[in-house]
């Protein structure tokens, strides 16, 4: 080891020999753990001499957040000192190489689960609308993360997540694109939702008297209508059974024109509007094209619905 140290000494002794009283002595450690991402010379060496404070602040490399760390040779470190402090009288001692890694801290599975639960309760669109139950949470037994990351951990969900049934999140540190782990849990939401208070026949318009609120498990069907206002004034596309929640595919916006309705048929030119009467042969909403039979001539034409009981046709 003594002859290795002598070689390193010669690399840095710009004056030919290190003056006994004026030389800075850098003693390298074999291993080091750092909390920050930027490695300084003072993190991996003991420095004595008149320029010790300046040498200690010398930036070297960026230490990877993950993985086994990095190993730096004494030769590399000597060249960095020579580059930043030309002409300095320096003696290099200690280990021929230094292994550097990020300091890490342990996070328990219970802490990860608490993070997931809090994120679900914060992000769920059903908060304040019912009881949210989080069960069967699956996490690693523990994690090891770089020091400082523990307070920055966050759970991220898919933009399409509905927070019902099986919900998965990725755990990462804020500002980092690296995923640390995945956590999943089953979410059950009990909320007051509109159900049919009595049988509602197919085609009927739904009124407030037709509905009542009951506690239901929203995770039982993602198609369940959860807000009363989303049902009122809608038309039942199928017969709805009493006591059953309303599903979105089973209700629809009522048509502006229904089959068999008497409608005003309008034909427009630049300077003229011709109005006649017709009978709608199909249901339709605003902007839809439906067949219409002229009430007088019996001729069938295609009209575009422009308002309630009003279509525009081309004669």
The level of helicity is: 10-25%
- How many strand units? 22
Give me the number of helical elements: 5
Q: What is the structural class?
A: mainly beta
Order of helices and strands: HEEEHEHEEHEEEHEEEEEEEEEEEEE
Look up the CATH topology of the largest domain: eubacterium ventriosum atcc fold
Mean pLDDT: 85
CATH architecture annotation of the largest domain: Sandwich
* Biggest pleated sheet: 5 strands, antiparallel
Radius of gyration: 38 Å
* Count of domains: 4
Shape, principal axes of CA atoms: elongated
CATH first level of the largest domain:
Mainly Beta
Beginning-to-end CA distance, first to last residue = 105 Å
CATH superfamily of the largest domain: eubacterium ventriosum atcc domain
- The low-confidence parts are 1-21
* Portion in beta strands: 35-45%
Provide a descriptive summary of the structure in words.
With 315 residues, the protein is mostly beta strands. The chain has four domains: 2-102, Sandwich (eubacterium ventriosum atcc fold), CATH 2.60.480.10; 106-190; 191-252, Type Iii Antifreeze Protein Isoform Hplc 12; 262-313, SH3 type barrels (Roll). The protein is 15% helix and 41% strand. The chain has five helices and 22 strands. The strands form seven sheets. Strands 10, 12, 13, 14 and 15 form a five-stranded antiparallel sheet that branches. Strands 18-19-20-21-22 form a five-stranded mixed barrel. The radius of gyration is 38 Å and the shape is elongated. The relative contact order is 0.09. Mean pLDDT is 85; it is low at 1-21.
């Amino acid at each position: 080891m003594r002859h290795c140290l002598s070689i390193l000494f010669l690399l840095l002794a710009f004056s030919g020999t290190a003056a006994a009283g004026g030389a800075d002595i850098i003693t390298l450690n074999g291993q080091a753990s750092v909390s920050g991402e930027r490695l300084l010379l003072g993190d991996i060496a003991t420095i004595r001499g008149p320029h010790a404070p300046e040498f200690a602040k010398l930036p070297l490399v960026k230490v990877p957040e993950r993985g086994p760390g990095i190993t730096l040779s004494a030769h590399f470190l000597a060249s960095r000192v020579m580059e930043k402090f030309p002409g300095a009288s320096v003696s290099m001692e200690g280990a021929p190489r230094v292994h550097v890694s990020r300091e890490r801290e342990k996070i328990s599975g219970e802490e990860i689960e608490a993070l997931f639960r809090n994120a679900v309760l914060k992000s769920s669109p059903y908060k304040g609308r019912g009881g949210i139950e989080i069960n069967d949470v699956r996490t690693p037994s523990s994690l090891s993360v770089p020091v400082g990351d523990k307070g920055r951990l966050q759970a991220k969900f898919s933009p399409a997540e509905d927070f019902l049934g099986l919900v998965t999140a990725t755990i990462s540190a804020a500002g980092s694109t690296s995923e640390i782990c995945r956590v999943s849990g089953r979410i059950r939401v009990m909320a007051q939702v509109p159900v049919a208070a009595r049988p509602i026949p197919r085609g009927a318009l739904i009124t407030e008297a037709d509905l009542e609120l009951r506690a239901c498990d929203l995770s039982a069907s993602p198609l369940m209508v959860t807000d009363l206002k989303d049902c009122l004034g809608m038309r039942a596309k199928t017969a709805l059974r009493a006591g059953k929640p309303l599903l979105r595919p089973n209700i629809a916006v009522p048509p502006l024109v229904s089959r068999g309705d008497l409608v005003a048929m309008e034909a427009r030119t630049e300077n003229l509007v011709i109005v006649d009467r017709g009978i709608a042969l199909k249901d339709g909403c605003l902007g839809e094209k439906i067949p219409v039979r002229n009430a007088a001539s019996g001729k069938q034409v295609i009209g575009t619905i422009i308002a309630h009981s009003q279509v525009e046709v081309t004669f």
